[in-house]
């Protein structure tokens, strides 16, 4: 361990060496240690154990823990670190026995890491394999994540395979509807349905399809916000997405039902995010305030006048709180807004707001 070898590997090699030096006794079997098998005295590059690509796991629990750690690493990894995590993941995945791949928890853990690395096809494959396991000892969250990743994959492949993308979206919605019907709705499940509709709006090939998807996006995110409100909570994420859908419907000339207290709700969302950030600072609550200002000026149709300030505010949050991968969510949201605005029937909206969104996107990318 003094060379940086993780605790689990060190124990494995100690037992192996004991057995090889004393094959006539069973002392190696009594060599027991307890603790986190991924713990090491020296920190190595993210996603790679000391000692090169060689991998040894004594039990499935060690694999699951290692994969969970890798998934957490992936959420905040730089591009170079992502490459290391991917390499490490392929080493682990290719070295697992068929028997261990029949364990639902192992498949779910693999699916999570592939999903965090944006390898959606592989992630979906592992999450779907979870459903075939005879003994269902995996969390329901795995099925919910499958639905989320199916629609992310659908958006990725919508240009080259629109029928396949539509099929993935339908299947994701069917699963979530069944979960809600069989169990009960939660804010998270309503938000997942909202995110599916959001991606459907991007995939839609005509104005009517975009309006229809935005309507479902609004309905589900409002349901998620109301669900939290019944417990006395102000949930910024579903609130902001609900209001965004309504503003976009209005800009597309659709039948919007923007709440009369739109501005008050927007201020409540920003204030709630600020409070949460003070209690537990993180990127998501930090970025919400800027997202609220972006939506405010989108609704006022004066985004071009405020784009420089919005760019500066986004970059400040990125510098203070965000990893490259977390900040990518901002770029994806801007891509979503631009996709919808490009379908607006009024040319001034397409050109003025679309140009401002593009300028903001470029300002953040650079």
In the predicted model, the low-confidence regions spanning at least 5 consecutive residues are 43-54
Query: What's the SSE pattern?
Result: HHHHHHHHHHHHHHHH
SS element count, helices: 16
How widely separated are the two ends?
42 Å
Bulk shape: elongated
Let me know the average pLDDT. 88
Structure, explained:
By secondary structure, the chain is mainly α. It has a domain at 264-366. It has helices at 7-21, 60-75, 79-95, 98-101, 104-116, 120-130, 140-157, 162-182, 187-203, 207-229, 236-251, 262-279, 283-300, 303-321, 324-341, 347-365. It starts with 6 loop residues before the first helix and ends with a helix. Residues 43-54 have low confidence and may be disordered.
Supply database-style keywords.
16 helices; 366 residues; mainly alpha; elongated
Task: Give a quick summary of the entry.
It is built from 16 helices and no strands. It has 366 residues and is mainly alpha-helical. The protein has a domain at 264-366.
Write the layout of secondary structure elements.
Blueprint: H1 7-21, H2 60-75, H3 79-95, H4 98-101, H5 104-116, H6 120-130, H7 140-157, H8 162-182, H9 187-203, H10 207-229, H11 236-251, H12 262-279, H13 283-300, H14 303-321, H15 324-341, H16 347-365
Helix pairs in contact: 2-3, 2-5, 5-6, 5-7, 6-7, 7-8, 7-9, 8-9, 9-10, 10-11, 11-12, 11-13, 12-13, 13-14, 14-16, 15-16
């Amino acid at each position: 361990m003094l060379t940086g070898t993780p605790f689990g590997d060190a124990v494995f090699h100690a037992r192996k060496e004991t057995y090889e030096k004393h094959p006539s006794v069973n002392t190696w079997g009594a060599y027991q240690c307890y603790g986190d098998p991924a713990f090491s005295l020296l920190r190595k590059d993210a996603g790679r154990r000391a000692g090169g690509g060689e991998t040894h796991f004594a039990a499935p629990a060690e694999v699951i823990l290692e994969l969970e750690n890798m998934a957490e690493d992936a959420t905040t990894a730089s591009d170079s670190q992502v490459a290391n995590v991917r390499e490490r993941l392929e080493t682990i995945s290719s070295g697992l026995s068929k028997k261990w791949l029949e364990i639902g928890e192992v498949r779910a853990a693999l699916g999570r890491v592939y999903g965090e690395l944006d390898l959606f096809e592989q992630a979906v494959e592992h999450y779907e394999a979870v459903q075939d396991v005879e003994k269902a000892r995996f969390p329901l969250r795995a099925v919910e994540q499958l639905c989320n990743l199916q629609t992310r994959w659908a958006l990725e492949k919508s240009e080259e395979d629109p029928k396949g993308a539509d099929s993935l979206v339908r299947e994701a919605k069917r699963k979530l509807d069944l979960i809600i019907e069989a169990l009960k709705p939660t804010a998270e499940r309503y938000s997942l349905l909202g995110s599916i509709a959001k991606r459907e709006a991007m995939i839609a090939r005509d104005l009517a399809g975009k309006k229809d998807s935005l309507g479902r996006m609004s309905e589900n995110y409002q349901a998620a916000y109301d669900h939290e409100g019944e417990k006395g909570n102000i949930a910024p994420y579903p609130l902001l997405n609900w209001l965004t859908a309504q503003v976009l419907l209005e800009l597309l000339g659709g039948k919007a039902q923007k709440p009369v207290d739109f501005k008050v709700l927007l201020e409540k969302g920003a204030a709630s995010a600020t409070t949460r950030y003070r209690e537990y600072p993180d990127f998501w609550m930090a970025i919400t305030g800027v997202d609220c200002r972006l939506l405010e000026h989108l609704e006022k149709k004066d985004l071009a006048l405020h784009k420089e300030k919005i760019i500066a505010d986004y970059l400040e949050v990125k510098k203070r709180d965000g990893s490259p991968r977390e900040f990518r969510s901002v770029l994806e949201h801007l891509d979503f807004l631009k996709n919808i605005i490009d379908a607006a029937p009024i040319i001034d909206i397409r050109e003025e707001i679309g140009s401002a969104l593009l300028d903001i996107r470029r300002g953040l990318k650079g």
